[in-house]
Specification:
5 strands; about 50% helix; 60s Ribosomal Protein L30, Chain: A; 8 helices; five-stranded mixed β-sheet; alpha+beta
Amino acid sequence: MSQRTVTAVAVVLGLAACANMSESQRNAGIGAVGGAVGGAVIGSATGSDKVGRDAAIGAGVGALGAYIWTQRMEAQRQAMAEAAAGSGVGVSRTEDNQLKLDIPSDISFDVGKAAIRPEMRPILSRFADTLHQNPATTVRIVGHTDSTGNDSVNEPLSTRRAASARDFLVDRGVNAGRIAIAGRGSRQPVASNETASGRARNRRVEIYVGESGG
């Protein structure tokens, strides 16, 4: 089997492996796969006899280069940390340089509902302000549920919750083209669904903001 074939197989396996990763890990993984392809192609085009090495180098660059952390991103993180202080909303920088807002159920949505609760509105309003101040970024909103009920209920509910957050931001002037949404249902718990407190943690919305390095 040629080195080029080996690289192609590795790329396919790499993409498949991304399916069960966390959001930040998945983005870094996809970047790594893309980098590996680029490295392999460059090595092949230049007649390099070290295509595998070139692919590995490309993978490292791709994993690091998906997003960049700029002064604007840091200012946005600080602004959201101040706005969310004492609310229970988590504000963090991910390993692949995205800003993450982790919004728990007790301020976001009532059980079984997709309407945004009043406690969440000021935080999303401030978030919209920071997006206007940093127009180079894109946003992903991911809804999650606990395991109560079945997939036929949880999947669309998690998507409707993400859509509600998107619509709120759009109503405040954020371009809808900047925002992608997804619903994960109960498939990505962060705590045990065997306890009430664990189920409450799993009912959440995660918002990711990224500034591309490309």
